[in-house]
Design brief:
103 residues; seven-stranded mixed beta sheet; globular
Length: 103
Amino acid sequence: MKKATIFGDETNIERKNHQEDLTFFIKKGTVKLNYVKPNTSIKLYEGSVYVEVENSNIKVNSSTGEIKVDAFIYEKTYQKKSQKNKNNFSAITIKANIFLTTR
């Protein structure tokens, strides 16, 4: 399986239906990912993350931002693990808001 790593200072990214493992290191920006299935990791200082996740273990953390998963709001951290899920999604931020939709 292919792997891609993306670095940026002020970067806005939108991806649909990607098939490769992705890692993002971004200082400030917006990351929009539709239909995340492979392993994906996002490290973002400031901005927003919009992600649709399916069949993945989830681990997100935002020090001062908001975390919204489906219709629920969480403070600082959210995790969901299942032994049947083979893929992992993680987002670690300082000031970014994280909006997840799960399937």
